Amino acid sequence: MAATTYQRILLKLSGEVLAGPNESGIDGGMLDYLAKEVRSAVELGVQVAIVIGAGNIFRGVQGQQRGIPRASGDLMGMLGTVINSVALQETLESLGLPTLIQTAIPMGQIAEPFHRKKAVQALTQGTIVIFAAGTGHPFFTTDTAAALRAVEIEANAIFKATKVDGIYSADPVKDPNAVRFDRISYADVLQRQLKVMDLTAISFCLEHDMPIVVFDLKTPGNIQRILSGEAVGTVVHK
Ligand code: UDP
Question: Which residues bind UMP per the record (predicted)?
């Protein structure tokens, strides 16, 4: 049993994170770092599910600018999340961590299709479950996929990895008076139009009372710190 209030978390990683210092692609050093951060959660006995984006590979909106219909571009984006998921899976397994990928779009030779009960069973057995291909539907994001899957598997919270150490009243880079919140309500996030997750994802979390912990992934040990009860990042709550 974990010495933490979190038994099961859903970690949301953006695709950009996987690019590491580069603008796109997958950085080996970053994969190793991420896998070790995930391992630190598993070592505490916490069940970990992961949703990865594809900003390092392709987003549907980029295709639109080149004349690719949004729905097709979004399929490309969802396929990008599968590439990222396989990369992370292999890295986690190289550390001896058991993993399972489930995809929202069936692709039997690569992974098993999403199956809520099988996912929960695997998590319960200590397997890291990676949910790939977003929601399986265009016009959504992997933030929304993360919110959906977190609610489906009854996670205690979404751990939303970002480049900043929490949610600020304004962009801390541009506004020296910006203050960081330790806790903030979904309603405030929506009303202040703070860029935490997209509106669909936030609304879904609000409706289902799914807390979101926004934290800085670049600081080593942050996932373990949050799980151990340290006040790291910002918690979005009811
Ligand atoms: N996408 C989609 N439906 C989903 C999730 C993702 O169509 O349910 C597509 C969409 O084109 C999106 C891309 O996949 O831009 C990558 O996801 P996202 O932008 O959320 O990645 P991130 O910003 O987290 O790297």
Answer: 74, 135-142
pLDDT of residue 111 exceeding 80: yes
Per-residue b or e along 176-213, where b marks 16 or more CB atoms closer than 10 Å to that residue's CB: eeeeebeebebeebeeeebebbeebbbebbbeeebbbb
Average pLDDT score, the chain: 95
Domains defined along the chain, listed by start: 8-237 (3.40.1160.10)
Under the banding of pLDDT at 50, 70 and 90, the label for residue 3 is: low
Contact 147, 201 (CB under 8 A): yes
**Ligand 1: which atom is nearest the Cα of residue 70?**
11
Query: Could you tell me which residues are annotated as the binding site for UMP?
Result: 74, 135-142
pTM more than 0.90: yes
> Using CA atoms, how far apart are residues 35 and 91, in angstroms rounded to an integer?
6
> Could you tell which of 14, 141, 158, 214 is best to mutate to test the pocket of ligand 1, judged by most ligand atoms within 8 Å of the CB?
141
